[in-house]
Amino acid sequence: MNVSLPLVFVLGVISWAAIKFLGVRMWVAVVIALFGFWLSHTFLAPAIESGTRTGVGVVNGDNK
Hints:
Elements: H1 7-21, H2 26-39, H3 45-60
């Protein structure tokens, strides 16, 4: 059985758990999210997207 979850949902759950259980302050999570938005508008965005897709493919076992 395969379950498909968006990466944003998974990262949101991890962020919520970090805030709730690890004591990460909310402003730190907001700054990290803003950094991600700003980073997505730079020349590094295609490399980050490619690396993310490759990493997800490795975890899912899609590397044939």
